[in-house]
Amino acid sequence: MTRGADEAPVRTKALVALAFAGAIAIAWVGASGRVPTYILPSPADIGQATLRFFGSARQLAHLGATLSHISLAIAIGFVLGALLALAAHYAAWSAPAIHRRLSPFLNAFSGIGWTLLAVIWFGVSSVTVVFSITVVLLPFAIINLREGLLALDRELIEMGRSFGRERLRNFVFIVLPALLPFGAATLRIMFGVAWKVALTAELFGGSRGLGYMINIARQDYDTATIFTVILFIIFAVYLADRAVFAPLERYTSRHFGRAGAK
User: Fold this and answer.
1) From the CA atom positions of the chain, what is the Rg in Å?
2) Is CATH 1.10.3720.10 the classification given to domain 40-260?
3) Which of 24, 89, 113, 213 is found 20 to 30 A from 227 (Cα to Cα)?
4) What pTM was computed for the model?
5) H-state helical runs in 91-151
6) Given CA atoms 230, 231, 236, 242 in this order, what sign does their dihedral have?
């Protein structure tokens, strides 16, 4: 009885979500038949644009450029954020500058602002895009990894020191495993945010990428291509989150989460 009672709300939520999606689809088809295509393309138009997108080497090159921008920015942002969080943790004198000055400043400054500054500094280039994404992602890494360092089990670390004096060995075998759940959660957040920032950065400061594609499509009133890119990003981020980052976060939390508990 309990299992059936638990499954009923789940089925209800699934039916409600399906009904909502169906209503949106019906409204979309009805509205697209009443307005010009450049305002709201029909699902058929977007289907054709999707086929053109994946059948065009030039457009796939733009997709590859966006993926490279995001991957590089996440890698740089995560590594820099980890180094800053570790510096603030192990060199206490640097903590006020990192956590009370740098991190709040980066967290408050908008992605568009960084993009416009980067265009002045680096011109319209991939460097501008990667830089803009990185500085937006950096505070996420600093803040999340700081929480992981604060959550370390002090007694476990002290016990490790009592069995050996090698700080590097204790860091590799005690601290790093305890930080893995926080690292996985940080990457999950950074991946979702990076896509949002990447489009803006490529729109204003990039010469290639999906954001650049949207800018060209806007100028040509090619709304179907804009919808195609948007829908692709939604599905790509959702699938990556469910198939990669969520399982990774669950795995690290299950196997290493207890090591970092206070």
Assistant:
1) 23
2) yes
3) 113
4) 0.86
5) 95, 103-108, 111-122, 126-150
6) positive
